[in-house]
Design goal:
By secondary structure, the chain is mainly beta. The protein contains no helices and 17 strands. Helix content is 0%, strand content 56%. Strands 4, 6, 9, 10, 12, 13, 14, 15 and 17 form a 9-stranded antiparallel sheet that branches.
Length: 224
């Protein structure tokens, strides 16, 4: 039977498309009253989780994300680390908070870290006492590139940029990696905080030495 397709913005404004073919019954498509580009394979707004930035390494010294923070729209941010492989064996994976919006600059000062982890191929586990670093934070130690095609560094973390008044920037990132010793490690608690109240507008990721041979990082905003 013939039918119609109703496109409605949810506010009482709509248009009706008549189809002379067979739809079985009338259909309604509701489109939110906002500006966006939507495609089946490239949609960026997935019901509250919005992809804001992405960068792929190719012998890169760093991956920098400036000016993605908007506390009026997003409550926090997810950071997806996808198969990061270092060019140099036995390095640490670092993060630096950025300030200044589009004209980003590193936040200097003391970064504090706490973590706990398991060796996934054995029964041993450990935790680290609070450690301080000057001008950067460490998310993973002893990252290896031997056998990295099987166990590259992978993580999904959450970033809270802070407001500088009653909260400070913090990143929490559980991850798995292959250490330079060959052991596969899973960090199940791993947090970096910058001392003193501070609001961040971006992030910079790099290695303790050498380049990031390959891999990518993707940032998603969690809408309020």
């Amino acid at each position: 039977m013939p039918g119609s397709i109703k496109i409605d913005d949810g506010s009482g404004n709509y248009t009706i498309l008549t189809n002379a073919g067979s739809l079985g019954s009338d259909k309604t498509i509701t489109i939110p009253n906002e500006t966006a580009t939507l495609a089946t394979t490239t949609a960026t707004n997935l019901g509250g989780l919005v992809k804001l930035a992405s960068s792929t390494a190719s012998s890169s010294s760093e991956l920098v994300f400036d000016n993605f923070v908007d506390t009026s729209i997003y409550s926090s941010y997810y950071i997806a680390v996808d198969n990061i492989i270092p060019a140099t064996n036995n390095v640490n994976f670092r993060v630096v908070f950025r300030t200044g919006g589009a004209s980003g600059a590193d936040k200097t000062g003391t970064y504090s870290r706490g973590y706990a982890y398991n060796y996934l191929e054995t029964s041993s586990s450990s935790s680290g006492a609070r450690a301080n670093y000057t001008d950067y934070g460490v998310l993973a130690d002893n990252v290896g590139n031997a056998g990295a095609s099987v166990h590259a560094l992978q993580a999904i973390g959450q970033f809270f940029p802070g407001n500088g008044t009653n909260s400070t920037a913090i990143i929490q990132m559980p991850m798995t990696q292959r250490q330079s010793s060959g052991a596969v490690v899973g960090y199940y608690q791993n947090a970096i905080i910058v001392e003193n109240l501070y609001a961040a507008t971006g992030l910079r990721f790099y290695l303790g030495s050498g380049n990031i041979a390959s891999g990518s990082i993707h940032i998603f905003g969690v809408k309020k």
